[in-house]
Amino acid sequence: MAKIELNGIRKTFDQTAILKGIDLAIEDGEFIALIGPSGCGKSTLLRIIAGLEPQSSGEVRIDGVQVDGIRPSARNLAMVFQSYALYPHLSVFDNIAVPLRMRRHSALARMPLIGRLHPERGRTERGIREDVERVAAQLELAALLKRKPGQLSGGQRQRVAVGRAIVRQPLGFLFDEPLSNLDAKLRVHMRAELAQLHRQLKATFVYVTHDQAEAMTMSSRIAVMIEGNVVQIGTPAEVYENPRDIRVAEFVGSPKINAMPGVIREDRGLEVLGRQLRLGTAAAAGRCTVCVRPERMEIGPGPGTIAGIVTHLEHLGAEAFIHVKVDRIDLPLLARVSPDQQLPEIGSAIHLGFSDNAVRAFDAAGKRIDVAVPARSERVREKALG
Amino acid sequence: MVAPAFILMFLLLLGPLLGVIALSFTDYQLGSPSFSWIGLSNYQDMFGDRVFWLSLRNTLTYVAIVVPAAVALGLAVALLIESGGSLRTWYRTIYFLPVMATLIAMSIVWEFMLHPQFGLINGLLHGIGLEGFSWLQDRRTALYALCVIGIWQALGFNMVLFLAGLVSIPRQLYDAAEIDGAHSAWARFRLVTWPMLGPTTVFVVVITGIRSFQVFDTVHVLTKGGPSKSSEVLIHTMYIESFEFFRSGYGAALTVVFLAFVLLLTLVKSALANRGVHYA
Amino acid sequence: MTPRHRSLVWSATRHLLLLCGAVFILLPFVWMISTASKPQTEIFTKSIHFIPQTFALWDNFATAFGKASLWRFLVNGVVVTASIFVLQVLIALPAAYALAKLRFAGREVLFALVLFCILIPPQATAIPVFLLFHQLGILDSYAALIVPFTISAFGIFLMRQFFKTVPDDLIEAARMDGISEFGIVWRVMLPTAIPALTAFGIFSVVAHWNDYFWPLIVLNSEHLRTPPLGVASFRNEEAGTNYGPLMAAAIVIIAPLVVAFLLAQRRFIEGITLTGIK
């Protein structure tokens, strides 16, 4: 069990700043997901925690102990790699046994041939066998112990990689996009297995992914990384509902959040696409972006709604998305509707609206600005829409 | 579309291959009007000939020295080059130079370096107070001097093959090894590099083996198999018998022995390849 | 020791070991150039010095070119290697295309034959081919140097593997445009195969420029000698007396390939390591 603290981690590579000062406290036993678009530095951060790469500045502490300059294996963290990184020439048993053999056998006992003569070797080897078999049973790998990784399916390899990580009971686990090589169905299944594993082990999990569905479904907290910074940390719901930055809003959520150009007027009123909203803000006047999630878009005419043309329909079975082209925005706006409702024709005119509490507004720099509905006007608008 | 290629293949490769085997059962001599089938007579002569056994023993000695040395040194150089960032291309170029340089020309350079009186090697030995040898003229050293030239020439080729093998090892395996507790360079070599290089190593050993069996250029230019047959090798014997004494039948029998060894090496290679040195 | 120190020590060790090896590798080259730059009197001394006191490189070159027909050897080398490569391509490419892309009875058998032929070492067929050429009366000619290598099973194999990766659509589009099968080989497949062909070309030229065994067997006439044969015979004539010009001749013989290699290292290493597959 470990608390992992990162203080001011910076990493530059060939004069390119990859990490620009990361501060992050990962609590003992927590399942935290690091997500972000590719190139945001999340994998580099994970490798720095693991000790596979040195940071340019800043410090990593595990359980309060500074570990910079300490070898990866001595940090007592296990890592599961994207490609699983199983030793292809070793059987499943031997793969899982590697970290134990490296730790428990002396260097002499590991020597080829003469190692077999080492007096302690037999006893240690029996202990290793017990541990490997225990883990194999836990992960339902018992029948596969003699196989080579090449003879396993993707899901089985994944489990062997996990087995190799848990067998030595480390303080924490680092996962580097471990599910990205699996097909969609298996991925959903493994998500549940990993979450289950976390509940069982109660160890610290740091999980890097670019797949927000994985982050949302498994983790207790999400750290969203963009361009070398942690932009927001919070529970999945917080990050989804309350993005602090427009890049977070746009990265989290699929399909992407609708972004509409807006203006904060001198009188602190908010306008979007030339329409006045009944929302006010304390922020300074200027350009802003008004964002609304597709499931919060409402269809039907009314005062203050936005007129557009239906350009495309996506019927997904359990839900449907309407793409609406609106003047002055390049990308169509998306509205999620229930599929049992009558879908409009492609090419037909349509009106889109949204309630005031669906609005997330961001200033020109992309920072979230608080908007509030003056109390008296709210009821009037709801009636108008209803 | 395939006709020209396959006609030539039968005419210049497959036909002659069968021809050489057939020829080894005849007493044909170049220029003689007729020949007769003499069964295994050539082979009997050969097995009864001291020169053949000397030649075979020398060839095997040459292979047994050059293969391990050129493979081990090639691997060592590749590992050293790969383990650091600086001057990689320079080292690679330098070590590869002997592969490019015409061996005959370089043999002549080596000959002068090994010159008993004015050679660089003896001069250097003299400088540190050692007595030199008449390397190529001394039956104790001639074969070993040829071995050194063989190693010098083969090393760079093996290095390049090993470099290609090293590059194809996934980086994540080294990360995994590091996390699993392989602290020392030796432990990582044992756990990842050596097993992952398995197919490359088998390959390099066989290639070097086949090439060493073919050793001819240096022998022919530098020692002519001498002194007193101490550096006589298989292909050189075959060349002398077939193209200087024109005993084509007997030369063919020597060729068949050579072929048998090359075939053996090829079989070793495919046997090892199928025995799971390769993996997904 | 701190990690920084450790990596410094390791880096120094690495360079030290590699430099020792490099000295062993380069010594003959350095000695060759050094000797070629020395006058006779400096060569036959017991003291070792790499830098000549009197610089005689040009004299030695002049002597070498005067005593041996070095130009002739180089021209022969170019004629022979170029002819071999062109013929190899002309013969191998259609076969490779057919084996890769056309369906016909016996294709698998023919391909198996190709694979088998790759394994035949050139020394194995020397005697029968020599006897055949003797019968035909073409020993001691350019033809004798070139013909045995016109068929490269390895070339067929290599190009066939490459053609396998060319999409069928490309060939079908060409057929739709009315290009004949031979037209497809030369006008569609050949341009796509340039990288593979370059590698094979380097492999072929290096192998035959440096070949000694076969020219030694079939040649008698001085005017046909290839570079290795030329330099070897020059050495036999000088019989260990005239090392300066001999080293100069060696430089001339290895220069074309070594210079080409230094200019296009990556391509050369690719081409030569192809023999790895062989």
The global form of chain B is globular
Q: Classify the beta-strand content of chain C into a percent band.
A: under 5%
The string of secondary-structure elements of chain C, in order, is: HHHHHHHHHHHHHHH
Number of domains as seen in the coordinates of chain C: 2
Q: Greatest interface and its residue counts?
A: B-C, 86 and 90 residues
Structural class of chain B: mainly alpha
- Could you tell me the radius of gyration of chain B in angstroms? 23 Å
Tell me the CATH topology of chain B: MetI-like fold
Low-confidence stretches of chain B: none
The CATH C-level class name of the largest domain in chain C: Mainly Alpha
How many individual domains of chain B?
Answer: 1
User: Which oligomerization state do the chains in this entry correspond to?
Assistant: heterotrimer
Mean pLDDT of chain C: 85
CATH architectural designation of the largest domain in chain C: Orthogonal Bundle
Structural class of chain C: mainly alpha
Instruction: Give the mean pLDDT of chain B.
Output: 86
Cα(first) to Cα(last) distance of chain B is: 37 Å
SSE inventory with pairings:
The complex is a heterotrimer of chains A (386), B (280) and C (278).
Chain A (H helix, E strand, L loop, with lengths): L3 E10 L2 E11 L4 E5 L6 H9 L6 E6 L2 E2 L10 E4 L11 H13 L16 H18 L15 H13 L5 E5 L7 H18 L2 E6 L2 H7 L2 E6 L2 E6 L1 H6 L4 H6 L6 E7 L4 E4 L2 E7 L4 E7 L4 E3 L6 E10 L4 E6 L7 E5 L11 E6 L5 E4 L4 E2 L1 E2 L2 H11 L1
Parallel strand pairs in A: 3-8, 3-9, 6-7, 7-8
Antiparallel strand pairs in A: 1-2, 1-4, 4-5, 9-10, 11-12, 11-14, 12-13, 13-22, 14-20, 15-19, 16-17, 16-19, 17-18, 20-21
Helix pairs in contact in A: 2-3, 2-4
Chain B lengths: L2 H21 L17 H7 L2 H33 L5 H13 L2 H11 L6 H8 L14 H26 L3 H10 L4 H12 L1 H16 L3 H7 L10 H11 L3 H30 L3
Chain C lengths: L2 H34 L3 H4 L13 H11 L2 H32 L5 H12 L7 H11 L5 H5 L6 H12 L3 H9 L4 H12 L1 H17 L2 H6 L8 H12 L4 H21 L1 H9 L5
Helix pairs in contact in C: 1-14, 3-14, 4-8, 4-11, 4-13, 5-8, 9-10, 11-15, 13-14, 14-15
